[in-house]
């Protein structure tokens, strides 16, 4: 498994660097409009065709290590609430190159990160995302939920 990176901002210039083939196959793009309804040139809404859950380390509340996840009442998608550093578990299983996280960021492989060659101060934020074989949060590897329900665990030991 190659290392993966979490991309937080999308602009036409970044989409061009990701490659037309990958963008057309892996993403759904929309337009961004201003308050007057005019299209904002160079900016796009983006949804990944494949979604991965970003997990994190347990957070501490009242002296207990806890991890939580829940289903969005609006869209029904699972969202995890872990502390940094974040990671993927399980990792990607499809042949897609660009994926979306549950936090709406795009996840790209190291090969695309290197092709983009972002410099400090470029306005793009990247976070290295390791892929782990077992989760650190005390939850099962495969997570599922019911809309409106929370999933929580308290780690012991």
Total number of beta strands: 13
The largest pleated sheet is described as: 5 strands, mixed
Estimate percent helicity: 10-25%
Helix count, DSSP H or I runs of 4 or more residues: 3
Strand order in the largest sheet:
4-10-11-1-12
List the secondary-structure elements in sequence, H or E.
EHHEEEEEEEEEEHEE
Please tell me the overall pLDDT: 78
Structural class of the helix and strand makeup? mainly beta
The number of distinct structural domains comes to 1
C-alpha end-to-end distance: 31 Å
What this model shows, in words?
The structure is a single chain. This protein has 157 residues and is mainly beta. The chain contains three helices and 13 strands, in the order βααββββββββββαββ. The strands form four sheets. Strands 4-10-11-1-12 form a five-stranded mixed beta sheet. The model has no long low-confidence stretch (mean pLDDT 78). It has one domain (4-8, 50-155).
């Amino acid at each position: 498994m190659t290392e993966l990176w979490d991309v937080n901002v999308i602009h036409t210039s970044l989409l061009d660097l990701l490659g037309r083939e990958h963008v057309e196959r892996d993403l759904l793009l929309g337009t961004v409009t201003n308050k007057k309804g005019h299209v904002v040139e160079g900016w796009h809404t983006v949804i990944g065709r494949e979604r991965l859950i970003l997990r994190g380390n347990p957070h501490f509340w009242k002296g207990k290590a806890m991890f939580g996840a829940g289903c969005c009442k609006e869209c029904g998608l699972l969202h995890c609430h872990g502390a940094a550093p974040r990671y993927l578990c399980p990792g990607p299983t499809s042949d897609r190159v660009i994926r979306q996280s549950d936090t709406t960021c795009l996840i790209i492989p190291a090969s695309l990160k290197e092709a983009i060659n972002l410099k400090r101060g470029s306005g793009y934020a990247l976070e290295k995302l390791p892929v782990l074989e077992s989760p650190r949060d005390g939850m099962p590897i495969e997570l599922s939920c019911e809309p409106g329900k929370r999933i929580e665990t308290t780690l012991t030991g």
